[in-house]
Amino acid sequence: MKLEDRVIRSIARRKGVVILRSELAALGSPAQLSRVLSNLVKTKRLVRVGVGIYAKTRLNKFTHELAPAATFEEIAAEVFRKLEIDVAHGKLARDYNAGKTTQVPVLSVVDTGRRRITRRISLGSRFITYERSGAHRSKERHP
Questions:
Q1: Based on the domain organization, do 64 and 92 belong to the same domain?
Q2: Tell me, what DSSP letter sits at residue 87?
Q3: Which of 1, 18, 95, 139 could be cross-linked to 78 through a Cys-Cys bond (beta carbons 3.0 to 4.6 Å apart)?
Q4: Phi-psi region of 115 (alpha: psi -120 to 50; beta: other; left: phi over 0)
Q5: pLDDT at res. 140
Q6: What is the pTM of this model?
């Protein structure tokens, strides 16, 4: 069985929409895997969200073209879950959810607490922006 077939089968069996390159590393050499993933992106079976991060696609029932299988916000949330990065809504989204403002936030902003993140996560023209609140949100330790 060709590596491309094994990668496609592995991707199809996964429950989530996001695929990390590290999850497929055991299937073949890095060069072979790069070639296969590049071909899958060219044929629109996957979309590249970031370095080593891909998302599944599905047929859009309106345009009859392949499109990401989830919304950008759902993809970003799953990426952070898989990378074990603890994030929260940005200040504007928190204010809107608390009823402090009626302006709907347009940009996707996440609060990383004190953690500094430079990873670019984007899909088309949309991208994640990071803000740091400085608040320490880790679990408290009691001596």
A1: no
A2: -
A3: 18
A4: beta
A5: 45
A6: 0.82
At 57 the three-state DSSP class reads strand
pLDDT average, residue stretch 95-108: 85
pLDDT for the residue 112: 85
Instruction: Give 143's pLDDT tier (boundaries 50, 70, 90).
Output: very low
Q: Which residue shows structure tokens 């929260």?
A: 88
Record the tokens describing residue 126, joined without a space: 């949309």
- Angstrom CA distances, 12 to 7, 17, 90, stand at 9, 10, 33
Please give the helix or strand (H or E) that residue 117 lies within, else none: none
- In this prediction, residues 24-39 reach a mean pLDDT of 94
Query: Which residues form the domain of 26?
Result: 1-84
Determine, yes or no, domain membership for 50. yes
Strand partners, 122: 127
Element (H, E) at 125: none
